[in-house]
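Supplementary Methods S3. Input chains for the assembly prediction are listed below.
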Amino acid sequence: MQQFDVIIIGGGASGLMCAAVAGYRGRSVLVIEHTRKLGRKILMSGGGRCNFTNIHNSAANFLSGNPHFSKSALSRYPAAQFIELVERHGVEFHEKTLGQLFCNESSKEILQLLLTECEWAGVQLVTDTRVESVEALEKGFHLSTSGGELQCESLVIATGGLSIPNGGATGFAYDIARQFGLSVGDVRAALVPFTLQPYDLEYLKPLSGISHDVSVSCNGTTFREAMLFTHRGLSGPAMLQISSYWNPGDTIQIDLFPNLDLFEWLKQQRNDHPKSELLTQMSHLMSKRMAQALCEHWQFSGHMADLSNKRLEEIAQQLHHWTIKPGGTEGYRTAEVTLGGIDTDGVSSKTMEAKTQPGLYFIGECLDVTGHLGGHNFQWAWASGVAAGQVV
Ligand SMILES: Cc1cc2nc3c(=O)[nH]c(=O)nc-3n(C[C@H](O)[C@H](O)[C@H](O)COP(=O)(O)OP(=O)(O)OC[C@H]3O[C@@H](n4cnc5c(N)ncnc54)[C@H](O)[C@@H]3O)c2cc1C
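Predicted structure tokens for the full assembly:
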């Protein structure tokens, strides 16, 4: 029987961070990962360059049943502290857009940073090891694993959410939460591309690969970022962001020209180029392929001079207020995160300890704290990992 002060289940972003912090405090720490690879999502992230934090990060960037829950951990471990760690390890980075920080070279550098920290802190890491059962003892926990029987004083669950199931995601955290009397709210795929209904897909599929800046709204929330047409539907940052606010059956509203008063612009073009085709004018505002498909679909045509104010207003209205009812989303297969999860009412916002079971901690994405796109989810993983690492 091996005994540790702290066992952390899940060798991803939050688990490795928590392990290093606890190890530096002199605690004996074991991290158990069930796949062969630690930090797989870190490697996949940010298109291979890991968007590791966001300089504008705050609790306002998260969805949660309790919008105040993340405040304590985020304020004690803000983005600036992770940036300082990244700089100390000599990892070069840049701001891409909207405060999003990416590695110049590779996501591997962020994983290596965490593994180096764990090594310096004396953390033991095991991979390819399954946890078969967890039992509470009078003090601490007993774990039966594929690698043998283990005991620990503090047990940290850092197994993340359900997205990318073929990368090792499991519902383990939710099962343990339920086992120890915590409630788990509904979960669903978020930061995920939309699929379209056959009717919309038919005319939009040929636009696959085109990106266009939009503002998109759903259920009272709006994002202004790029939209990408795909062969299945709509993706790009704008669509991933709004997917977190979308429920099946909802419509989304897209403004294709959030920077422009299209009606005024069209009147001006009619004045300046009366003989030109509407399609020619629309091609100045978006790719020709996109202008062609949309004009054909909505039957927008004619010479500018022949288009009345009423018609121009109708066209502008359609393009500023395009309403689409997605068929669904691509689901956990491609989602960046799981929305919802363990009800934070049952967890201390200061330490991440379960209120129902002393010594049991939940960190990272398994909790009902879901960040916007742009480095916020990693910042939550770091901050919640540190919060628990300081007390376990
Ligand atoms: C493709 C993709 C790109 C992303 N890009 C970004 C980005 O650029 N910026 C950003 O902020 N966020 C990004 N995210 C989200 C981010 O990766 C997660 O929010 C973050 O990794 C969550 O950290 P975590 O520690 O809670 O879980 P994870 O990092 O997912 O770690 C959980 C670990 O637990 C292991 N595990 C699961 N079940 C068990 C079990 N039963 N026993 C033992 N181990 C188990 C898993 O294999 C995994 O290693 C991206 C996600 C994806 C899928």
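The CA atoms of residues 54 and 100 lie 5 Å apart. The pocket of flavin-adenine dinucleotide is lined by residues 9-15, 32-35, 40-41, 44-46, 50-51, 131, 158-160, 163-164, 168-170, 172, 336-337, 364-365, 375-378, 381 (CB under 6 Å).
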